[in-house]
Amino acid sequence: MNRYQAAYTIGFDYGQRNAVELECRARIRERLPVIAEWNGALEADRLVALDFLQGLGESALTSDRPIEAAGSGLPNTFVPGRNLMFLTVAAALAYKLGIRHIVGGMCETDYSGYPDCRDESIRSLQAALNAGMDSRFEIETPLMWKNKADTWALAENLGGDRLVDLVRWETHTCYLGDRTTKNEWGWGCGSCPACELRRDGYLAFRRKPAS
Length: 211
Ligand code: ZN
Hints:
The protein has helices at 20-35, 52-55, 82-97, 119-133, 148-170, 193-207, and strands at residues 6-13, 41-49, 101-103, 138-140, 182-183, 186-187. The chain is of the alpha/beta class. Strand 3, helix 4 and strand 4 form a beta-alpha-beta unit. The two termini are 23 Å apart. The structure holds zinc ion. Residues 174-176, 178, 188-189, 192, 194-195 line the site of zinc ion.
């Protein structure tokens, strides 16, 4: 955040079965600028409905289906085109607002098998958006090459324990939407693939020697 004078936020309602993700946004937006001691301005938030994604075919993230590997080798939590759609809509808004930098949290290091989190996908989309809108967008993905332990460490570097605690208690990861089971690393069932990544990353981060 310190790299920019102002930031706008955008969220997407794509019929995800864990609407709790959307509820987390307001609390994070409220506290993040205070905790991270950012001098820039946090501008308007936008929530965009992409609920048609749900109608294109089921995914375990947009229905109550159990989470498992699909025949394609991808997890059945994969929502085809989701991240591409998110970034395309964000770019359309950025175009209207005169914004050049679009920041997303995609990560290839432990990307859970999602091809639209890969750097190659993001770079290709950036090229397509720039050609299609005659623009010079830069899609920034600061988490791309970080594992989850590095991501926790990044939060600590940016805002100390207060930011780590904000991430712990106010962000959501669990595929099952569990916000009642309290763990050292935050809320979640503790056994779905998303919880496992979050937990293992947090524990690795805490085991790190102080630098
Ligand atoms: Zn879980």
